[in-house]
Each structure stands twice: as C-alpha cells, then as structure tokens.
C-alpha cells in the first residue's frame, strides 16, 4: 500500500465526516481547522469509525488493533469530545462525533480547553463566516428553540410542559454546567471580539450531561444551582434556548447576541432567523411605559424601538413599539422592565417543535431537499 501524505490523511477524514448529517463545505479555512484539532495519527484512526455506537471489540477488528491498544486511544479522544463514549450493562460503546459537535460544541465546553482546541479557534472562526453555517440558512427548524424566562408570561396556566423552563429543570435527574462554547471559541481567538458575559452558563442534562462530566468537559450541579444560573443569565440579558424537540431535550444554552452562533447567523450572515421562536410575543402597554429604553438595549433581535405615542403619559411622549416579525418571545425585555409595561402573550397561531431528535432530523433533511441540496 503506497504511503499517504498528511494532506491525504486529513482529506480522507474530511470526506468521512461529510457522511454525517452536518456537511463540511469547501473553504480555504477547512483544512487548517481540521489540522489544528486532529493530529495525523488521530485523523487516520478516526476515519471510518461509525457515527453509531460500536463495541471496542468491533472497532478493534475494524482497525486491526488489539483492544488494549485501541481502548486508551478512544478514551483519550472522548475526553477531547472527538469521540462519544457510553457504557451500558457493562459494555462500553464508542462512536465518532460529527463535525458540528466537534467544531461548535464539545471541545469548547471545557473550562480550560486543551492546546489543540485553542489552536483550532482562529481558523474555525474564519471558517464559520466562510460557508460553515450555510446549512442552517436552508433549515427552517433550528437546533435551538427560545424558551421564555420564568415569570415573564402573561398567563402561566397556558404554558405547555416543554415551554416552562423551571418545570423542565425540576423534571431532570442529572444537571451539569459547562463553558459556553460560542463565548469560549471567541475568547480563544485574539482576532475575535468577546463579550464580558459569564462563561459557565451552558446547561446539559441526562445522557449528554453524564458524557460531559465523565470526560472532564463540565461539572455536575444541583437543580437549585441550575435555576440560579438561569436567574443570573436572565439578569444579564441572556436568552434561554433549549434543544428544539419536545421529548428528551438535553441542553439549555444562555445566549448573547454577540457570540451565539445562531444570533451571529442572523445578524452577521443574514439568515432569516436565529433560534426557533417561542409561542409567545411581547405585548406592550404604552400608558405606563416611561420610555427609558432599557428594553431596546436588552433585546437581542433589535425588535423594539421608541416611537411617539398618543397613549404615552411620560414627558417624552414616547413608548416602546414592537416589530412582531423580529420578536423571538424570550422575555429578556420583559424581565427587567421597571414599569411592567411589557409581557409575553401567547400567539394565536402556535407551533409544536419536533417530538424528538429523530423527528427533528426528518425536518432537517426535508428542508435540505426542499432547498435542492443533495444528502
């Protein structure tokens, strides 16, 4: 067998990663990103490993390596979020993590990222703006859905279970927190502007939470600690965004408009929306609005402005006015309104997110097909 060059080894890994749900568009920044995170030995080892769980024995046979040699290598790669590792009934199974998980999530969850993750940040940030996120432009169903901040909804009795952030947390048996991967990715790149929001605000639950803690990518916290993080995030003006399916949601991000990949897709890349919206929209009461402008400062979608209002009773004669097409129903403006002139009202037309990850993936492929994208 002829000797392969490093470039050929990396290209084979890229071609393999492209077989997962998330593609890797061509870009001058793709190869530098991959080379920064994987060394040639890792690239060769991971090429061909399935994206579904396999036993160590199955992978050992596939790779022509004894389990005693392969196991530690895969365990080390799991600690870097390149490989998924799970254990059930005494059997450990491994699968290759897709490129979206590796480039936008896992490695950047660590409070102290390894050298390879640090090296990857700069070329990856360039790749982000050069085609990486184009796939979400075609997707009408986003990966995250806005979930209202607690106590910002007009009639709590109408909130469905998957829309209530506190009830969701109360239903979880295992809660964890990690660094925000979007903020971390920016922080590690000296060419990027980073905000001063709290870093440790990315919440995960269930199986994903166990994976994160077992591999040193985050830490376990209590339900009360989880709620306190949500409270502080709301105070800071961060948007709660949950996995966009009704059953088995495993993530709540707390997103800022400057670093969040979905907000950047909207504001910088000009996608038609950021996260999927909640079933709520801001309602305004101009009679009590004092035109302080705090809601305008806090809104991550630039959906509010001050306009002259005959109903306003303040000296300026102005009140907050909503652009309903931009509102995502997060409650960030409502939460800090000093005169309680804003409230989240349930929309007349509501939308149920996909039931689970399988149904979400059906939406993903249907959107790509409708856009004329193969795969």
UniProtKB/TrEMBL annotation:
Segments forming domain 4Fe-4S ferredoxin-type? 280-309, 318-347
- GO molecular function (one): iron-sulfur cluster binding
Keywords (A to Z) from UniProt: Iron, Iron-sulfur, Metal-binding
Q: Name one Pfam family in it.
A: Fer4_10
Q: Which InterPro entries match?
A: 4Fe4S_Fe-S-bd, 4Fe4S_Fe_S_CS
Query: What name does the UniProt record give this protein?
Result: 4Fe-4S binding protein
User: Which organism does this record belong to?
Assistant: Candidatus Desulfacyla euxinica
């Amino acid at each position: 067998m002829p000797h392969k060059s490093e470039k050929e080894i990396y290209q084979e890994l890229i071609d393999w990663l492209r077989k997962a749900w998330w593609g890797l568009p061509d870009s001058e920044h793709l190869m530098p990103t991959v080379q920064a995170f994987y060394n040639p030995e890792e690239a060769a080892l991971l090429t061909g490993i399935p994206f579904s769980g396999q036993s160590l024995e199955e992978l050992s046979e596939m790779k022509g390596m004894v389990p005693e040699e392969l196991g530690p290598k895969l365990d080390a790669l799991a600690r870097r979020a390149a490989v998924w590792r799970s254990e059930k009934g005494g059997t450990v199974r491994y699968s290759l993590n897709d490129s979206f998980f590796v480039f936008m999530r896992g490695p950047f969850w660590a409070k102290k990222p390894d050298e390879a993750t640090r090296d990857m940040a700069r070329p990856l940030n360039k790749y982000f703006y050069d085609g990486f996120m184009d796939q979400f432009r075609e997707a009408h169903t986003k990966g995250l859905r806005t979930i209202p901040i607690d106590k910002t909804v007009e009639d709590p009795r109408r909130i469905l279970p998957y829309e209530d952030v506190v009830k969701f947390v109360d239903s979880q048996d295992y809660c964890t927190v990690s660094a925000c991967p979007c903020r971390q990715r920016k922080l590690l790149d000296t060419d990027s502007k980073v905000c001063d929001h709290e870093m440790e605000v990315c919440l995960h639950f269930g199986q994903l939470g166990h994976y994160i803690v077992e591999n040193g990518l985050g830490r376990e916290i209590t339900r009360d600690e989880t709620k306190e993080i949500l409270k502080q995030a709301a105070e800071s003006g961060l948007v709660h965004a949950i996995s966009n399916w009704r059953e088995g949601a495993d993530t709540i991000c707390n997103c800022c408009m400057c670093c969040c990949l979905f907000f950047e897709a909207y504001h910088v890349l000009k996608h038609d929306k950021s996260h999927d919206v909640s079933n709520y929209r801001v309602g305004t009461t101009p009679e009590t609005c004092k035109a302080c402008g705090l809601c305008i400062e806090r809104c991550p979608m630039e959906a509010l402005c001050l306009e002259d209002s005959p109903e306003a009773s303040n000296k300026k004669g102005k009140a907050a006015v909503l652009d309903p097409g931009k509102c995502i129903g997060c409650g960030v403006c409502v939460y800090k309104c000093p005169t309680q002139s804003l409230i989240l009202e349930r929309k007349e037309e509501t939308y149920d997110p996909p039931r689970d990850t399988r149904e979400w993936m059906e939406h993903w492929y249907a959107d790509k097909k409708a856009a004329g994208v193969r795969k």
